[in-house]
């Protein structure tokens, strides 16, 4: 089962010119270890993502479906390569909250320190309510990793304390509901997953349901919320084995200064970028 590659140029007025043309490969919701995401599919996601040769790779949570097999699947993700780093945040599955059990409590899951170690062993830098600078040619932007809002682990304020609010801030997180945090006005671009795009989308209606607020508007794609740009990826996998008019997705985002933006939006099959596995 292949993902498509969604190629989008995003116009951002506050982006420093040194970052004009920066590319981000965005991958979320692989759900490695579920029936639909065995090793062959995970390897295909890795190979397709690497073929995009993005400057940065961002992994937005729910990379594994069950934490008990995390170490074996993270070893596959260790093959991801990007010139300016591979970064990740955690999703609800990493915290032991599956989509139907938010109010029933979490199942057993590794501690955050254990997740940090597992990601470090895979060469992936994990951020949880933290900020790190991404430097380029005497300039920089701030990358914020905000923990999962769906399971109640988010703390945007803690991440913003570590960043410069007068400089460009890019936040990666799992649930798009973080965009309703009042402090989100300090963030220029938010990248999220979690929704799977709704998985079932009907003509003229869109998603039947997605686990986020205002799901018909925020389940996937690019939207402006209170002055902040939000992009939600449909995800590169799923646990429930069906999709309708809502294919799997790996996103390649090109950041452009607003004055140079072309508004181009391409959709390309992953099998056209790299041969499918299996």
Structure description:
With 278 residues, the chain is α/β, with parallel strands linked by helices. It has a single domain (4-273), classed as Purple Acid Phosphatase, chain A, domain 2 (4-Layer Sandwich). The protein has six helices and 15 strands. The radius of gyration is 17 Å and the shape is globular.
Query: What do the pLDDT scores average to?
Result: 89
- Uncertain segments are 261-278
Q: How many H/I helical runs?
A: 6
Helix proportion of residues, in percent? 10-25%
- Strand composition percent: 25-35%
How many individual β-strands?
Answer: 15
- Biggest sheet: strands, sense, closure? 7 strands, mixed
Q: In CATH terms, what is the fold-level topology? A: Purple Acid Phosphatase, chain A, domain 2
Task: Please give the oligomerization state of what you see.
Answer: single chain
Text of the CATH class: Alpha Beta
Structural class: alpha/beta
Q: CATH H-level name... which superfamily?
A: Metallo-dependent phosphatases
Number of domains: 1
